[in-house]
Design a protein that fits this description.
By secondary structure, the chain is α/β, with parallel strands linked by helices. The protein folds into two domains: 5-132, Oxidized Rhodanese, domain 1 (3-Layer(aba) Sandwich), CATH 3.40.250.10; 161-291, Oxidized Rhodanese, domain 1 (3-Layer(aba) Sandwich). It contains eleven helices and eleven strands. The strands form three sheets. Strands 1-5-4-2-3 form a five-stranded parallel sheet. It has a four-stranded parallel sheet with strand order 7-6-8-9. Strand 2, helix 2 (40-45) and strand 3 (52-53) form a beta-alpha-beta unit. The radius of gyration is 18 Å and the shape is globular. This is Sulfurtransferase. GO terms for molecular function: thiosulfate-cyanide sulfurtransferase activity.
Length: 292
């Protein structure tokens, strides 16, 4: 399934106009943070009118062995049940947003696009952009009538842990965590510090501007090319547990690349006996040391 970068984002004004003329627009609120995973309290205090709350931990993630990572992809039947709870039907336009510069909303975009939903958009600028554009919020819960959508996964390219290791050696694998986590100076969550040997670091948070909107395609392309990525070569992406990597997947797509997602990400890698690299790679100014 080819995804065009121009088909991914929607502005607050465009969303307001779309909802006014199309009753088949479904809006999903995907508020989540690593330090505050339950975003429902904030959702209840104020959300885009009609938006349904989506729980990233239970509905956009599976549960398996530690070697699967902290947020493995959910299986398709579970995702389909959740999507029906959100009121989704086949043919709906779906818009996802969060209050985290779209870093968590992108996980919903990736899963639904991979599962065959034809029109999934990310609200550019997130909730902050909606409010800054003088659009109203509503309080309380939204419980839609159950939907009947059917999902079939497998439309977006992924990397297994073995394929990620090969791509880091022979192609370009980008680690989008904070630089200090990539270098192995700190590791607040996962069992081992460092990065996949050969992976290159490019912090996901720098792909958006001060207002939380994704950078223009040319600026994104320059960022990725600076760490060796080329549109005609394989490029993969990972983060801590696969959530933020979905946003990097979006940024790469908008920039004209054809990325692959290592969904297990560092949380999966660090729970195996695979080698770990400490320090910076040649793009960061020094050689990395691999530690078994």
């Amino acid at each position: 399934m080819a995804v065009m970068g121009s088909e991914i984002l929607i502005t607050p004004d465009e969303l307001a106009e779309l909802t006014a003329r199309d009753e088949r627009v479904r809006i999903l609120d995907v508020r989540w943070r690593l330090d505050r995973p339950d975003g429902r309290p904030e959702y209840l205090e104020g959300h885009i009118p009609g938006a349904v709350y989506v729980d990233l931990e239970s509905e956009l993630s599976g549960h398996g062995a530690a070697s699967d990572g902290r947020h493995p992809l959910p299986d398709t039947p579970a995702l389909e049940r959740a999507a029906r709870r959100w009121g989704l039907d086949d043919g709906d336009t779906v818009v996802v947003y969060d209050d985290l510069k779209s870093l968590s909303a992108a996980r919903a975009w990736w899963l639904l696009t991979d599962a065959g939903v034809q029109d999934v958009r990310i609200l550019d600028g997130a909730l902050r952009g909606w409010v800054a554009s003088s659009h109203a919020l509503e309080r309380g819960d939204v419980v839609p009538a159950p939907g009947s959508i059917t999902l079939t996964a497998g439309r977006l390219p992924q990397l297994s842990i073995d394929a990620a290791a090969v791509l880091a050696r022979d192609g370009v694998l980008i680690d989008v965590r904070a630089p200090e986590r990539y270098r192995g100076e700190v590791e607040p969550v996962d069992p081992r510090a460092g990065h996949v040997p050969g992976a290159r670091n490019l912090f996901a948070g720098d792909a958006v501007d001060e207002s939380g909107r994704l950078l223009p395609p040319d600026a994104l392309r320059a960022r990725f090319e600076a760490v060796g990525a080329r549109p005609d070569q394989p490029v993969g992406v990972y983060c801590g547990s696969g959530v933020t990597a979905s946003h990097a997947f979006v940024a790469l797509t908008v920039a004209g690349f054809a990325p692959r997602l290592f969904a297990g990400s560092w949380s999966a890698w660090s729970n195996t006996a695979r080698p770990v690299a400490i320090g910076s790679d040649r793009f960061g100014g020094e050689d990395a040391k691999s530690l078994s």
